[in-house]
Amino acid sequence: MLSEQSVPVVRATLPVVGAAIGDITELFYRKLFDDRPELLRDFFNRGNQANGEQKQALAGSIAAFAGMLLERPDDRPDAMLARIANKHASLGVTSGQYKLVHQHLFAAIVEVLGDAVTAEVAAAWDEVYWLMANALIAAESRLYQEAGTADGEVWRSMEIVERREQTPDVVSFLIQPADGSPAGAFRPGQYVSVQAELPDGARQIRQYSLSAAPGRPQWRITVKRVRGAAGPQGEVSSWLHETARAGDLLTVSVPFGDLVLAEDEGPLLLASAGIGSTPMLAMLDHLAATGSTRQVVVVHADRSAADHAHREELRRLVDALPSASLHLWYETGGDAGAATGQADIGALDLPEGLTAYLCGPLPFMRAVRGDLLRRGVPAEAVHYEVFGPDLWLGQE
């Protein structure tokens, strides 16, 4: 909770800070990387820095957190913090890094806002920062404890035991610990980080959903190649597609992620588009492996049948569940059992009391979520995963 003396200061200055937050975050990253260039090379996603999405996500999270402190002072934005904390844990973030961020972020605030940053204003926004940072530090520490690892010690060597081409742009890898031990437990819907050593010497990190059920000796990740992007976007997916083969070693994190299947008997909606199907496959595989009788409505949208990765596997998993139904939409190229065009949740008969899980491009998830809310599904029953910086933070 924000202190009594800071509330009016933050309330009065939030419009000014909010209006300048884009400039502040851009200058923050420039200062950070000038001071610690290895962070851009080996930690931050160079693609998301180049296209501005990471700056936009940081700006949104700060403004949203400050707004929540003012408007809902007795609440914590747990969904937002959980998503950030899981991403940080998958990268091995530790508490000391928050001091470095504070140093350069507040230097950027002072430089952008100038004389508007009085001692009183600086103290109030310092409080906002550390409320958010300490909440994240505590959440990340709990995640490390649950994973059975020391803070930040998330990496291990894993061997590719199988590579399988799913579509021209999608490949899946079965991986297991290089020492031959079982891959370990995770919750359906979670992801791992993969660290790739690229030709220029950078060690770039990306997250990939675990796309098959837990409880097996190996994990599976499914990687879509990002094509046609200017700059560093797609450099890790391209490296995996071009170079990773059975027998190669990858540096992989333990699993994290807050889009996880609820262990109850309530009805489910699993809605995905494109490569967003991967966490849904793990959920469906888990439901089938455990003999679930839950009512499950599965929705998937893709460009075409040929672009739909794991298409036959999805059909098999749905067929294995006695109370599941599958609804497919392809933009082009008709396919038996699939509609043509954009996914239309409004056309479906949905069960009462469902829990919805969404994954795919933001426009798809916004449309599906909007349809569900209009049909009376409570906002807290709709969960989502974003591949990349969460530009939805603070907009829910």
UniProtKB/TrEMBL annotation:
UniProtKB keywords: Heme, Iron, Metal-binding, NAD, Oxygen transport, Transport
CDD domains according to UniProt: FHb-globin_2 (cd14782), flavohem_like_fad_nad_binding (cd06184)
Domain FAD-binding FR-type span(s) in chain numbering: 153-262
Keyword Metal-binding: yes
Pfam families, per the entry: Globin, NAD_binding_1
Domain of life: Bacteria
TM region(s), chain numbering: none
Family affiliation: Belongs to the globin family.
Protein name: nitric oxide dioxygenase
Species per Swiss-Prot/TrEMBL record: Streptomyces kurssanovii
Lineage of source species: Bacteria, Bacillati, Actinomycetota, Actinomycetes, Kitasatosporales
